[in-house]
Design a protein that fits this description.
The chain is α+β, with helices and mostly antiparallel strands.
Length: 276
């Protein structure tokens, strides 16, 4: 999966520092990220590419991968003159090396948080950065804001030798997926599994068992993967606003769609291989 970057390591402790010549920048513009691509390899803008005046600015520290520090870039920096271009962040799913692609996705998540938390939601005053932890606070009313992480479930519904696969409605992603959805306030993750399955395909499930988790910076999400068994009738009642398709698929018929970055695809692969 995209976060499996060993032997490289993400150091996400909040330890603010100043950039060095080798420091890299995550520059975001909505769903786009500023990068270069050379034969499938991702390249991020570096501190040494800035002119002297730009290097005098203060930059927001994000995290470190191995010994390389990443900082939040700004749109008006001169990186576009250095040959960088704005690309859809989804492109990082296919680029290498994996540890830099993961850094880009994680950086985009933090960038979104900083860009949408400039002012206090309670009193409207500008938020300030805390010096000890990754937190923004209001100096007037004391409101504190922490990075946005949304828990969601990925659900592999099993009925004997078959699993329920789906395709999203109205999204760029057109490959097969599993049932998925965000947790609501006041419910357990297991209740989220049951609710999402019932809402999207009208089925009941039992024997819910945890598989694995995944940080998914594309949507500010922490994904929690579960397998469960069909409970009762397997007749599908499709929520057409959420899904374009949902169908039962035999283990041996699950296609290899060349996606090794997502929890969804790993769960489909382990079922196909008979591991679960």
């Amino acid at each position: 999966m995209i976060q499996d970057i060993a032997p490289h390591r993400l150091h996400n402790e909040y330890r603010p520092q100043i950039p060095t010549e080798d420091s890299l920048f995550i520059c975001a513009r909505g769903r786009k990220i500023l990068i270069k691509e050379e034969e499938g390899t991702v390249i991020f803008p570096s501190f040494r590419e800035l002119d002297e005046k730009e290097q005098e600015r203060e930059f927001v520290y994000l995290f470190t991968v191995d010994s390389t520090a990443f900082f939040l870039g700004e749109e008006e920096l001169s990186f576009e003159k250095q040959g960088y271009s704005w690309e859809n962040v989804q492109k990082l799913r296919t680029l290498r090396p994996r540890h830099l692609a993961f850094a880009g996705v994680t950086g985009i998540q933090l960038s979104r948080w900083y860009c949408t938390r400039k002012f206090c939601g309670a009193c409207g005053n500008r938020l300030e950065m805390d010096k000890k932890e990754r937190m923004l606070y209001c100096p007037v009313c004391g409101t504190m804001e922490y990075p946005k992480i949304c828990p969601a479930v990925i659900v592999g519904i099993i009925d004997g030798n078959r699993i329920l696969v789906s395709k999203y409605a109205g999204r760029e992603y057109k490959k097969y997926a599993l049932i998925a959805g965000f947790a609501e306030i006041g419910e357990t993750i297991e209740e989220t599994v049951k609710r999402e399955v019932m809402e999207e395909v009208g089925l009941k499930v039992k024997n819910i068992r945890y598989y694995k988790s995944q940080p998914w910076g594309f949507t500010d999400t922490l994904l929690l993967g579960f397998f469960c068994d069909l409970d009762g009738d397997g007749m599908i009642s499709l929520d057409e606003e959420e899904l374009a398709l949902a169908q039962w698929m035999e283990r041996e018929d699950i296609p290899d769609e060349g996606d090794e970055v997502s929890l969804t695809k790993e769960m489909m692969a382990v079922f196909k291989e008979g591991i679960v």
